[in-house]
Amino acid sequence: MSKKINQSWGGRFNEPTNEFVKHFNASIEFDKILAPFDIQGSIAHAQMLSEQGIIEKAEFNQIKDGLEKILDMINSGNFEWSIDLEDVHMNIEAKLIDIIGETGKKLHTGRSRNDQVATDIRLYLRHEIIEIKKQINQFLTVLLDLAEREVETIMPGFTHLQVAQPISFAHHMMAYFEMLKRDLDRLTDAYKRVNTLPLGSAALAGTTYPINRERVAELLNFDALCQNSLDAVSDRDFIVEFLSIASTIMMHLSRMSEELIIWNSAQFDFVELPDSFCTGSSIMPQKKNPDMPELIRGKTGRVYGSLLNILTVMKGQPLAYNKDNQEDKEPLFDAISTVRSSLRIFVEMFPLIKTNQSVMLDSALKGYSTATDLADYLVKKGLPFRDAHEVVGKTVAFAISSGQDISELSLIDLQAFSKLIEEDIFDSISLEGSLSARNHIGGTSKVQIIKAIKIAKNSLGK
Ligand code: ARG
To answer: Which residue puts its alpha carbon closest to atom 2 of ligand 1?
Structure first.
């Protein structure tokens, strides 16, 4: 045979690869994003090979220099990726051989693309998890600032999207804080399972060279080694776990988006989104559309889709590596870029949101939101809760017919429904009274919210 079919594996082949198969098989279009991590892993691997006497120290130095040159070429946009070389690993290895010659061929000693790619994705993902955690931290700080600014802002709290009880806007922001804080904790926990080293597992069974896996883990800052070579090359449940957290983050961002869209509508008018984060309509000049929260709500579907995608990719695979695993990358990359850009939008947009405090206050007043407080008042005066419920129902019906909130009814009007009602009732059924009465951990009183914000700040190390 004159020319090899494929530089890496062409030895046993007699016919060239079908042109369309080349395209179908190649992952270079999307896995080149792994290049810096591939190089980082290769340098550590080569260093270990030289320390173990498997290659010469001088050979390691040549390999390292070559790989660093390649990284510079990639970073400066001077690297030509070739589809004939299939993926990021073979593109880089071929270039190394181009640059440094025969020694370049020694880099792949004692490893396989199977443990190599598993290592690359873990290096990449742990980097991205750290970045996403930074962004969540920023967003949590933004939420805390907003909560601090709006402790005194009263709004209606909803159940079934019906006005239920008055709450503080800060309390509502702190609910989001709790959700995102749990996501942050989930990422911290998942990181431990991402940060284990597959390298050394080779194709599936391990390698015959006297390698030192602990040393590679140390060089690459992995906390532990994958303990079984078959599992190490084929496991992708660290991706499933990450995508499940990414989906949960998007679910939270989507719920917030939904509320912003509702609150920003002319009908609610609780908040105004900044012009710089909205777009107009090409036909209706009066419109200012909340596209950013709409897009985040919409993009949530992509991330859920990625989770389902990878679960399905994995479900039918026998041990160990199968080419199916190449399909792990696009859903992971897409989910990461979606989560990161969504968080970025929220971090930048939330501080610019204006609250319409008087509209929220009016809305809480209009919704009979202190009806429960009237019932609680009667119970404290000795009426059984069910009877109190009945009395309040009648009072509300009367207030509706006279077009007033219950806190606007006169004492005489109120006493017509129960003789237990006295002058002090207005402390309970005013909006302020209703809030300050909920004075326990988790409640919406000002005292509790200020405490909650303080605890939250501490939890972020602020
Ligand atoms: N591009 C491949 C992937 O992403 C690399 C591993 C290929 N291994 C193999 N045995 N063909 O999974």
So the answer is: 326
